[in-house]
Structures are given as C-alpha cells and as structure tokens.
Amino acid sequence: MSLTHTVKAFNDLSGQELYDILRLRSEVFVIEQSCVFLDQDDKDQHCFHLSLFSEGHLAAYSRLLPAGVSYEEVSIGRVLTSPAFRGTGLGRVLMELSIENCELIFGKGPIRIGAQTYALPFYTSLGFVKHGEVYDEDGIEHVEMIRL
Fold first, then answer.
1. Shortest CA distance to 119 belongs to which of 101, 107, 134?
2. What is the pTM of this model?
3. How many whole angstroms separate alpha carbon 108 and alpha carbon 87?
4. Is 73 strand, coil or helix?
5. What backbone phi and psi angles, to 5 degrees, belong to 114?
6. Longest Cα pair distance anywhere in the chain, in angstroms?
7. What are 20-74's pLDDT values in tens digits?
8. What is the three-class DSSP state of 21?
9. Measured between alpha carbons, how far is 83 from 31 in angstroms, rounded to an integer?
10. Surface-to-core class of residue 35, CB atoms within 10 Å of its CB (0-12 exposed, 13-18 middle, 19+ buried)
C-alpha cells in the first residue's frame, strides 16, 4: 500500500480537497455514527488539516488545532479512517503523523484529545492518558485524554 500525506492550513486547501475532507467527515460522523451535529464549527479555519492518502484516495484524516481553539493545549480532532481502509493500520499511521506534525507546527508540549471511549486502548498505546470523566457528545461516550 503506497501512502502519502499532506498537512495544509485551511486557506491552502483547494476546493476539491476541502470537499473531499468534509464529505468523508460527514460519511463517518453523520451517516455512519448517526450523529446529527454541525460539523462546520468555525474551528477549521484556524487548523491544519492532515490528509492521508492510499494510492491517491483519501483514506484517513485529522485536524490539528492550535492551543486555545478547543482546549488550553494543542489538540487533535476529527480523527477518522475511511470505512474502505479500516483494519489496515492506517489509524495508527494517521495518529503518529498527527502527533509528529503537532510538534513540528506548534512545538513540543501536551496534546489533548476528546476520545470515544471504545478507542481508549488505542490512544493509550500512543501515550495518551485519561484525563477526566466520561461525557456524552452527540450520543457517544467520550473522555478527554492528554499526551505529555
């Protein structure tokens, strides 16, 4: 599997790139997870967008948020792998690239995420630790985690 990735500020995304990202986010978060929520939350414009491609197809995505946009710390959000590429290890590749690029762009420091509780073992394996109580977000259990 041939993998490539891009990391772009919002204003550097082409119209097609933005469309592909938003379409995949809707496919996973709205359709697959049956969540009715406003995905366009006025944070995208402040973020860097990491797109992971397999053979030229958008296979996974995350957004990298500067400190102060979602949390006091730098954060990673909207983490997803396309259903067509699940089970291939791309989620780990995506998160490793996300952590690496957060450190390159924003500097070394803590990274906070809001993780779906089913994925706690995955995020723990990447150095994140639970930080807080479980909460409901759009009908799905989440918990904040931090990587120091």
1. 134
2. 0.94
3. 30
4. coil
5. -110, 100
6. 40
7. 999 999 998 877 877 777 678 999 999 999 999 999 999 999 999 999 999 999 9
8. helix
9. 12
10. middle
Residues 147/110, Cβ–Cβ less than 8 Å: yes
As given in the structure block, the two tokens for residue 112 are: 């906070």
Structure tokens at 96: 């490793």
Contact 35, 138 (CB under 8 A): yes
Strand 57-65 and strand 48-54: the pairing is antiparallel
Alpha carbon distance 116, 148 (integer Å): 19
Contact between 102 and 111 (Cβ < 8 Å): yes
Pick the CATH number of 3-108 from 3.55.40.10, 3.40.630.30, 3.40.50.1100, 3.30.420.40: 3.40.630.30
Q: Where are the domains of the chain?
A: 3-108
Distance (Å, rounded) from C-alpha 92 to C-alpha 36? Answer: 27
